[in-house]
Fold each of these.
Amino acid sequence: MEHVFHISNTLNEVKLQTVDHAGRNHILTLILGMNYPTSPPLIQADLPEQLIGNMKKVNTISVMLDIVHCVTCILFPQ
């Protein structure tokens, strides 16, 4: 429960928060639909401005994945 930032009263939205090495807060929002778990959750994340700016130039999925790979790192649970 360390990273749980908010759970809605209806339990259909969960916000997780973490702080990176630079002290910046990051929030990942999971929206659970009526058919969850048979349908996947909708996931929203706050993204760095650099990544958002680069996404506007994307015209294929492979280009998008290359950009994401270059400006992000993978966090593994402890």
Note: The two ends are 13 Å apart (CA to CA).
Amino acid sequence: MLFPFLGCGSDGCEGGGRRAYQQRKLRMLSGWRDALERQLAAVNAAISTLEQQIQRDAASEQGS
């Protein structure tokens, strides 16, 4: 049993229950993906900001 916490009992998901289970699983996984995409965007922005700061600091040191 893969994700029992999504509402599928030990007897499995039969008929309409299986479809509902699959829909809940899809929503859960999509939510996880969306959260990871937001986190990745934040990390990429932080990296970009640091790279810009390093370049700016290096340029100001050369000008001094």
Note: Residues 18 and 38 are 30 Å apart (CA to CA).
Amino acid sequence: MRHTIKKLHLTFGVLLTLFACGDVVEVTPELREAADGYLTLLDRGQNEEVWHQSAIIFKESVTLDAWLKQVEQLKKRLGKAKTRMQRDAIGQQDPANHPPGEYVMMNFETGFENDEGLETLVLFRQDQKWLLAGYFLK
């Protein structure tokens, strides 16, 4: 029987509901490279580097210590990622109650050693680069 994974809301929990009214977007090579880079760092346990390479809005919403504790607890319980398939990408421009700008939410169906889950990356365009603005796992 499949174990239930509790939601991990590290930043911008409201963004998930906000994207319900977004549009499906094409995953450009730039978006793919950014997402793959963050997921690779997470898979390697380089969680501090993820935080340092993230958007300012991410760093303002979660301290480095809180980020490290939350991710390490989750990964310890789930184990290493074994499979990952992108499900969709949803874009949103200037969402209400958030810093203005371009956001893309990318969902991945991920199989871990001990369970399965839906990983969500929220990427934010800052200084002409796609940077992490949120990471969720349920």
Note: The first helix runs from residue 13 to 18.
